[in-house]
Amino acid sequence: MTAGLVRLECEGAIAFVTLCHPGRLNAMSRAMWRQLRAAVETGIASDPALRCVLVRGEGGQFCAGGDISEYPGFRFDEASLREFHENEVWAALAALRHCELPLVAQIEGACMGAGLEIASCCDIRLAGEGARFGAPIARLGFPMAPREAALVRGAVGDVLARDMLLAAGVHGARRLYDAGFLLQVLPDAELAAKALAHAQRIAALAPEAARANKRILAAASVETLLASAYDYADSPEHREGIAAFLAKRPPVF
User: Fold this and answer.
1) SS3 of 77, please?
2) I need a surface site. Which of 33, 99, 146, 240 has the fewest CB within 10 A?
3) Are 54 and 106 in contact (CB under 8 A)?
4) Are strands 14-20 and 52-57 parallel, antiparallel or unpaired?
5) What family, per the record (predicted)?
6) CA angle, residues 166, 80, 85, in degrees to nearest 5
7) Is the pLDDT of residue 2 over 80?
8) Beta bridge partners of 17
9) Residue 45: phi, psi to the nearest 5?
């Protein structure tokens, strides 16, 4: 039985991170969490040509959660359970959260539990009309880990987070759009093309400005950024952006 994999492919300025677990709706195995972290921290971080990351699932599904078939092997021991959540799951999610490149999530089908957590780390989320969202782990008899619960709550909002965790609520894409979690809800057949177009649009813009904007949006306090906030003044892309606008031509970043 395959343990699944996280596939990293780079085409031009875009990195494609694909969750693959055939027969399991791309449920995350422990190996996949480690692979996801490595894909971001090693594969993506080492390629200076990249400007955007598109996160997606294989076969019309995003991610149905964790691979429950593995759970009896480690979840009933406190130390191994802590190791899993803090040093495997959270390490991968933290890698996504700290990625300097814009992250676009292409969400179709199941986006549950682990999938919802991964999507919550992305900067921009687009979903197909048939996508379903939730974290029904109350049916499995355990809570969401503290860091993961805070992440999801911050992304989907308090009302939905409480329903997902306390009542095992599962919601459609329109509900998540109304909550501000999704940028767009698209016909399922159009999602892949529109998500790619969005990533290409980001990749064509100023890359250092994108990195700076991510730091600004992630900062706990604006005060921590002020010392270096304007050090881009003489940068080539700053000069190019202004010059292109004044010359009425597209900028070349």
Assistant:
1) coil
2) 146
3) yes
4) parallel
5) Belongs to the enoyl-CoA hydratase/isomerase family.
6) 45
7) no
8) 8, 55
9) -65, -25
Whether 6 shows a pLDDT value over 80: the answer reads yes
pLDDT of 67 over the 60 cut: yes
> How many Å apart are CA 139 and CA 166, to the nearest integer?
10
| Residue carrying structure tokens 């539990």 | 113
CB 22 within 8 A of CB 63: no
- The DSSP result for 146-206, as a single string, is HHHHHHHHHHH-HHHHHHHHHS--EEEHHHHHHTTS-SEEE-HHHHHHHHHHHHHHHHTS-
Residue 53 has pLDDT above 90, yes or no: yes
Q: How far apart are the C-alpha atoms of 194 and 173, rounded to whole Å?
A: 16
Q: How many CA atoms lie within 13 A of 216 on its CB side?
A: 11
